[in-house]
Amino acid sequence: MTTDNKGEVILRVVPRITDINSNGHIFGGWVLSQMDVAGGIVAGRIAQGPVATVAIESMKFISPILLGDIISLYAYEERRGRTSVGIRVNVTATRGRSERKIDVTSGLFTFVALDDHHRPRPLPA
């Protein structure tokens, strides 16, 4: 996977017509779910096992996503606690034939590492 100043590219997806809201833009909930998936992948690698989303902080929509955009989700570890890890997820849209890159949104997702009983466990060193 490639990297840049936004983190590692974790997912690339193309929204479908069913993902459009009443304004003709891609529904924010769809974007949020893709971000949670991307953040969970990175958090799971760090935790070396299952994780659960416990918080979403500082979410900000910068620009709408349009039908036909290719969405790239970048992620990296921003902070770490004893049982939790904060993953920054940045979303960029590649638009049109010119393949113009547009920053769409960013958010900080906090995940907690889980043990076999679905309780918090310490992160590996």
Write a structural description.
- The two termini are 24 Å apart.
- The chain is α+β, with helices and mostly antiparallel strands.
- Strands 1-2-4-5-6-3 form a six-stranded antiparallel β-sheet, covered by helices on one side.
- Helix content is 16%, strand content 46%.
- It contains one helix and six strands; from the N terminus they run ββαββββ.
- It has one domain: Hotdog Thioesterase (Thiol Ester Dehydrase, Chain A, Roll).
What's the short story on this structure?
This protein is 16% helix and 46% strand. It is α+β, with helices and mostly antiparallel strands and 125 residues long.
What would you call the shape?
Answer: elongated
Number of helices: 1
CATH-scheme architecture:
Roll
CATH class: Alpha Beta
Strand pairing plus helix content: what structural class?
A: alpha+beta
Strand arrangement in the largest pleated sheet: 1-2-4-5-6-3
Estimate percent helicity: 10-25%
Q: Which regions have little confidence, pLDDT < 50, spanning 5+ residues? A: none
Strand content: over 45%
Q: At the fourth CATH level, what is the homologous superfamily?
A: Hotdog Thioesterase
> How many domains?
1
Q: Estimate the mean pLDDT confidence.
A: 93
Instruction: Please compute the radius of gyration using only Cα atoms.
Output: 15 Å
What is the name of the CATH topology? Thiol Ester Dehydrase, Chain A
Biggest pleated-sheet summary: 6 strands, antiparallel
Domain HotDog ACOT-type: 5-117
Protein name: Acyl-CoA hydrolase
GO molecular function: long-chain fatty acyl-CoA hydrolase activity
Family: Belongs to the acyl coenzyme A hydrolase family.
